[in-house]
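Morning!

As promised:
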Amino acid sequence: MSSLYQQRKNVIILVMIVFMAVYIIRLFYLQVIDDSYKDDAMRNALREVIVHPPRGLIYDRNDSLLVFNEAAYDLMVVPKELHDFDTVDLCNTLDITKEELLKRLDKARKYSPLLPSVFEQQMSKEDYGYLQEKLYKFPGFFVQNRTLRSYPSAIAAHILGYVGEINDAQLKKDSYYQMGDYIGISGIEKSYEEELRGVKGRRMVLVDVHSRVQGSYKNGEEDIVARQGSNLWCTIDAQLQKYGEKLMANKRGSIVAIEPSTGEILCIVSTPSYDPNLLVGKQRSKNYTALLHDSVNVPLFNRALKAIYPPGSTFKLANGLIAQQEKVLNRNTIYNCGGGYRIGSHVIGCHHSGPTDLIAAVRSSCNTYFCRAFYNTVSNCRTIQEGYQIWKNHINQLGFGQCFNTDLPYESKGIIPSVEYFNRKYNGSWNGNTIVSMGIGQGEVCSTPLQMANLLAIIANRGYYYKPHVVKAIGSKNNPNRRYAQKIDAGINSEYFEPIIEGMKLAITSGTARAAAIEGIEMVGKTGTAQNPHGNDHSVFACFGPADNPQIAVFVLVENAGWGGTVAAPIASLIVEYYINREIKRTEVEKRILELSIK
Amino acid sequence: MLTEKKQILSKGFDTYLIVIYVLLVIIGWFTIYSSSYDANDSFSLFNTDKAYSRQFIWILVSMALAVVLLLIDGRIYQNYAQYIYYACVLLIVSVLFFGTEISGAKAWIKIGSFSIQPIEFAKFATALMLAKFFCEGKTTSEKKNIWLFSFIIILVPAAIAILQKDTGSALVFFSFIILFYREGMNENVVLFGASLILVFVLTICLNELYTIAIITVGFIVAWIINRNQKKKIIRNILVYVLLIGFVFAVNFAYNSILQSHQRQRIDTILGQSIDPKGADFNLNQSKIAIGSGGFFGKGYLNGTQTKLNFVPEQSTDFIFCGIGEEWGFVGSLVIIALFMALIIRIIILSERHRNVFTRIYGYGVASIIFFHLLINIGMTIGLVPVIGIPLPYISYGGSSILGFTILLFVFIKLNDA
Ligand SMILES: [Zn+2]
């Protein structure tokens, strides 16, 4: 029997060898030829953990902290690593519905099956602690440390801005970011995003099949250390800002205060405002929507930069300067005010009368004088077009009708109409009288509070300015922000400022602006009334002080508060007093303002 | 006297087999150590919490047992083969009642902190029983129905294994078909067996109707080609009916008897699974581990896939992944070469041996080891369904290493006689 089938031994051995040869070929293919398994293995076991550096801190000009970081935790998910898990348990832990859970997973999958996406944002320390215990039950999920912005004194919301999750469009534009990253959306957070964000780090870690981190890869050789964002020192004086916001409570309007010698913005208030802490954390989008839809208060709207108003009487200062520069008048030029400026049958009234020189015209804000000055300025050439263009060039040089394009978010240009505009409007047939109301800051001209504050800075400097900006130093206090260090000539000779300043001083001591007088500080100021076709006029006041060593130029506009002397002037002077003296002696004035509420 | 005795002990024992055995066991232990390696833990050979130290104890026990097996009289195996077989059958039956269930299979007996899987010893007992059955005088009915009786010998433990829900071990008993073939079973029967496997795969991959259609077409084509040979027509019709019957049996078994995880495993290997995170996750991870090893491997203790638990059962059924990952293609080749050397050496020694009992037993040993090798490595590289059986001498597990040690050293002893 045995010998009969002995040749079968060879068949058996041969078949066995054929099988093993197939295996060896297969192994050769898997291990040597096909590289995809090596990539899969890397993807399997290596996890790139992005280390988000803390954002830079923001200080005010006196080193008091305006913005800092608080720890928060994001629950991340890598869709491809999900295994079956107890969805009910996860829903309960996070307090979300099953539909919400599926929706989020779907969104994450759409973004990328392999890259981590944020599943639950900004969990508090307590929530994180609770979840961490259970995290092993939810393979594919992990927690990433984050920092959230926090605003200890809750001021300057508009200027500081806020950060939020990056949107799809931004994500496409800049490869630095990943879905779920935070980016500055407005204010300093936006304009200094690159400085504040720092440089992301990377940690390569080994994870097991349950996505639990098992240790670092190659002892961290391939890790990249995250670099914290640069700290910023802004030009804002936090105490002044706070005080300004306090004064403006229950009023609408804005305060802009500039240090004339540098263009640094000392405070910039826009009310109604909001608490910047509302736009942080889990409630952010809910709060944001509420703020966005508040059509009564429009709290997200930064009036100081974006609202445009007819500048009113304060604009006369600019016209007085231009008229002198164009030599249509000098400090001794006297116009007789007959109680108004007459154009045919139409009269632009003036509340005063009598022969008036430039100083007196500024002091009493004479409409007749400035209408005539403006008429003479624009009519000084062969054609009105040429004359108007010269005036427009001057007014642009004084900062109107254009943006400063500094680190301030979303400025408005205001309105200084072009020659073409008037040609079109009047079919080419117009003259100085057609547009003469611009001479007293009415008609087509509109400006922002920032532009008006800048005009005051120019006057304080007697002829030049630095672009208004809010960041003083980057990285270290000894590293000044030089982007806006260029001195800009306003195109007006310095001697022409003297009669204007003289008139403004008189306005404080004996004219329209007596409410702005401060004992011990020689103030220079001008009231104004911005015409409001929708209701009560806006109360306007522009000033700087002290006269011979200007430290602060202030512009205040309070909507619907009527004449400038009553509300805007005391507020502006309180700002100056507080900034220079750090205390308020005129407590009666302060009390009146604080109690005043204008709807 | 003493020197003479020593000569008897050492001269005849096949050193090749012993050396390969020792090599495989050592490789196995180092691989188990690697797959349970944790840089933070202290090393201890006698801490029974650790898989590698438990395995170390089993290796010591196995080697001691090997020496004992070489020392005792080899004739007892032939004399007592049937008793050993009956005892083992009784033992595995008793497991059905008194056993402990571990990962779905009620196939274990717990002794202290160690678990024993008696089916591993049944493989040895069945090989002995078959050897005895083939080489000794038979009754007339036994002679007439020699294959029926041989099948009964393997079907009894296989059936019990299925009852224990240990499908993998049950399949191992069918590896004795290699032995049957060597002992004269008709090629057609072996071919019939192969076509059964094909029908099985088709039934699950396609469905029963397509499979029946394919079988029918196949038979019509075969009939057209061989239409002159009329005498085999009845036999062919019988085979056809049997195959169709098998289709329905498989269909029924697949849908009604198999547990869902087994069904999934079969689906996966046959490319039927659509759920990427389901059953083929394990197989995929296994392929990733082996595939990422490259030509020379990642180096000992540097495997990431096995170490980070991506691979399931990484020290038992999927231990080959650790070798593939850390030692690469070279390592895989060495393992296959060692096994093939072992198996072919056993076959050659068996053929050379004048004692029929030893020869048949040797074929039994070779069949079992080859089948384990075929299934175990095949499943890790995705060529055969995921069936949980260990890689001999290498996989973690006391019963496995003890069973395979007995299997081999009884052969070494018999071969020496
Ligand atoms: Zn007048």
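The interface with chain A takes residues 39, 178, 181-184, 277, 285, 287-295, 304-305, 308-310, 324, 328-329, 332-333, 336, 340, 343-344, 347, 351, 356, 359, 370, 373-374, 377-378, 381, 383 of chain B (CB under 8 Å).

Hope this helps with the figure draft.
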